[in-house]
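Protocol step 4 of 5: obtain the predicted structure for the target chain.
Materials: sequence only (see below). No template structures provided, no constraints applied. The aim of this step is simply to have a reference model before the mutagenesis design in step 5. Sequence pasted as it appears in the construct record:
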Amino acid sequence: MNRQLSEPNQMQVFPKNSPFLPTRKIGKNNPKAEFIEETNRLKDEWNKKIWTAYRNGAPKEGLITVKRELISKPATESIREAGGKGDPGKYNSILVRAIAIVAEMCRLLSKQGRETWAEAWGDALIKFIDYCKERASGSTLVRCKNRQMER
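Step 4 output (structure tokens):
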């Protein structure tokens, strides 16, 4: 619909190259409302973690890289493996894992100074992501999955 409106009348959402994830509007009598609500809740949680990292000095480019490495690439790979169809449950599990990893990144760096933040979110970002993936794959990820399964 935005394509049909003039530039000043278009609705504003997060830009595609932003580290934040937009939520979806839920229409009346939508049979997938429960799933969309859960996905929106996870996206809100992701946005809060990213905002915390940004507020603590993480550069925007680093946050975009984190989103690409933890969400965009795994989601694209998942769709490719499924033969072009996205699995909603798989996307939610990708989000849960990404949230756990970003939380671990923020937790590890919360005790450090600004210089460490700049270094970790700069040149060494991919190594730092891999390190946090290993640390978050333990009990934090299991707790998140169990909480999601209980709902």
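Step 4 remarks: Residues 139-151 have pLDDT under 50 and may be disordered. The chain has one domain: 31-150.
Proceed to step 5.
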